[in-house]
Amino acid sequence: MLNPRLRFLAVILLAVLAVAGCATQPPPPQQTPPSGAELDALRPSGDTAAEVPEPLGPAKPLSPLDDPNSPLYNKVVYFDYDTAEIRPQDTDLLRTHAAYIYRTPGVTVTLEGHTDERGTRDYNLALGDRRADAVQQFLVAEGVPPEKLRRLSYGEERPAESGSTERAWALNRRVELVY
Amino acid sequence: MQRPSITTTLLFAALLALVCSAGAQAKLTIEITGGVEGAQPIAVVPFGDVDGARPDVDIADVVAADLARSGKFKPMPRREMLMTPHREEDVDIREWQLLAMNSLVVGEVMPRAGGGYDIHYELLDVFSGKKLLADTVSSTSKGLRNAAHRIADAIYEDLTGEPGIFATRIAYVTSSGRNSRVVLRVADADGYNAQTIVDSAEPIMSPNWSPDARKLAYVSFEGRHSAIYVQDLASGRREQVASYEGINSAPAFSPDGRKLAMSLSKDGNPDIYVLDLTTRQLTRLTDHYAIDTEPAWSPDGSQLVFTSDRGGKPQIYRMSAAGGPAQRVTFEGDYNAAASYSPDGNALVMVTREGGRFRVVVTDTNGGSRRYVSSGPLDESPSFAPNGDMVIYATQNNGRGVLVATPLSSGASHRLSQDSGEVREPAWSPLLH
Q1: Touching A: B residues 87-106, CB under 8 Å
Q2: Which residue in the set A118, A121, A130 is minimally distant from B269, CB to CB?
Q3: Would B140 disulfide with which of A36, A48, A96, B116, CB 3.0-4.6 Å?
Q4: Chain B nearest-CA residue for A137
């Protein structure tokens, strides 16, 4: 089975090839924002049915955080424009992470808040902080000790996807759980 | 096949010379965009070299380029000059009247005993033949461009009644794509002498000048966390002044240089604080569950404007620098942010969203009399030039970040870009005296 890092690289390579292939005739930029389902499909793993595996069990050397079949593989939640409200479809994912962080000794998580490029940079830095704060408050309400969490806003300075399309913007409005 | 015209060849040679002289340091390139209607005709005659002076800067060329960039002057091309006097007594004023010039600048460069140069220049009114200005500027060999900018400032001030801003500097942030190095630079207002202030693998944001133009405050993520630094430009020494949990952002020097306003989220969510740089006392000015950020001082230091979404959407608010309640300033539009004052305190410039486009708008101090300065769609980081005559902001040009300076009265805009990568977050220095 392909290591996730290699898989990621392969995806990038394919994307680069795809872009290079249509260099002479670029497709029109996508103007409709991706739906929640589309965003979910863009995530590294679509599998949401699996149970939380035992962390660091001797029989399973692969951490659930790195296992594409684990729901914990998915570490990004997305936001609507100019809001820090957690979307209802992301609460299950955050609860799964909360349970894992709660019961795994020694684990700390940085909550990285990001925004899309629209609007001013300093306001976006504040908005990214708000998003990270919203996720932090959710996790703490689920029982995670606050000292296991750290929030860090990058505002619009670290986009996941470049370009000025609705799709890129939707992918950039996010909080990443960095273990 | 068509032969390249002489102009094309010359242009190519000029470009090549530019590229070669730029060396390894990335240079800001300036292009004048738009028309120059209403620009005054002026002739800046090549300066004479006296007593074996061999300056490596063409003073008259720098002066003419400065005046052209202001959008208020249209310097005469050299090839159209029939004579090149260097002193008033050699000027035949009727010739310049026939050439329909308004003003004439002549001058010469002399070596100084012990090194450097004296530059003597004269500004003549072509219509009356009167001498408007005569002065001698001393310069080191290295400081010749700056001396030329100071001459252009004096000419500009004499002819327009406004202080010139050619001998000022611009701070800006550059990067060449996602996850590449981010560099904070300072360059002369004409893009030359670009100097690196900080070079980092992590984001750098929000440069802000001290009122004496000797220091820059900025936000850097080099510790994998936002922190505010104040750096002395001459010595390179710097100090971390805010590195709390959460965001440390949007530093703004008070007009007396003693305080730094900022937005911190250490107490839960982003609020405005003021740090006294002498006593190190930190005072919280706002305490609201909304986002409060982007503080900017009124020129007299008595008030602060800032961005807050306490009404649901980002709008500009104003409060006393001593604290107390905040009043909402902007009511038009559902996104107004990053406001700052004009040097005379009579206007604000800010980013507004209009029809989905982020544009730069100038308003009176109550948010009224809105006048759009840019067309968007992703314009940001606007501020007034130190003489209040222009607004500089960041915009996208063919998908690349560039800076644009636009005059508020008449004249052409100019665009500042780097040959590669993007340029953003311009901050124009105060006047350097």
Answers
A1: none
A2: A130
A3: B116
A4: B268
What number is the average pLDDT over the span B227-248? 97
What's the Cα-to-Cα distance from A86 to each of A175, B176, B261, B268, rounded to whole Å?
A: 10, 33, 31, 18
Q: What's the pLDDT score for residue B399?
A: 83
| Among A residues 145-164, those touching chain B with beta carbons less than 8 Å apart | 150-155, 157-159, 162, 164
Q: How far apart are CA B366 and CA B74, in angstroms?
A: 36
Contact residues on chain A for B378, CB-CB shorter than 8 A:
117-118, 164
pLDDT at B26 exceeding the cut of 90: no
**pLDDT (tens digit, 9 = 90+) per residue, A68-113?**
999 999 999 999 999 999 999 999 999 999 999 999 999 999 999 9
d(C-alpha B288, C-alpha B267), whole Å: 10
In sequence order, which residues have a C-beta less than 8 Å from that of residue A65 and are 6 or more positions away? A72, A73, A75, A179
pLDDT digits over B168-177, tens only? 999 999 998 6
Angstrom distance (rounded) from CA B39 to CA B352 = 30
Q: C-alpha angle B207/B377/B344, rounded to 5°?
A: 50
Same domain flag for B154 and B251: no
Could you tell me what percent of chain B has a pLDDT over 70? 92
CB contact at 8 A, B290 and B310 = yes
CB contact under 8 A, B249 and A122: yes
Tell me how far the alpha carbon of residue B84 is from its chain's centroid.
32
Residues B206 and B186 in one domain: yes
How many structural domains compose chain A? 1
Amino acid letter, B150: R
CA atoms within 13 A on the CB side of B272: 29
Contacts of A151 in chain B (CB under 8 A): 245-246
B316 touches chain A (CB under 8 A): no
Which whole number is the average pLDDT over B297-312?
97
pLDDT band for A156, please (50, 70, 90 cuts): very high
C-alpha–C-alpha distance, residues B205 and B212, integer Å: 21
- The CATH number assigned to the domain holding A168 equals 3.30.1330.60
Residue where a domain stops, chosen among B127, B160, B193: B160
Is pLDDT of B339 > 80? yes
What is the span of the domain harbouring residue A171? Answer: 31-178
pLDDT, position A101: 97
| In B272-385, alpha helices (H) | none
Which residues neighbour B177 within 8 Å (Cβ) at sequence distance 6 or greater? Answer: A162, B421
- Is residue A17 one of the residues assigned to a domain? no
* Same domain flag for B297 and B390: yes
ipTM over 0.95: no
Of B225, B268, B293, the CB nearest to A123: B293
Number of Cβ within 10 Å of residue A169's Cβ equals 20
- In chain B, residues with a C-beta closer than 8 Å to the C-beta of A153 are 226, 246-247
Contacts of A120 in chain B (CB under 8 A): 294, 307, 337-338, 351, 380-381
Tokens standing for B421? 């990568």
Q: Closest-CA residue in chain B for A81?
A: B313
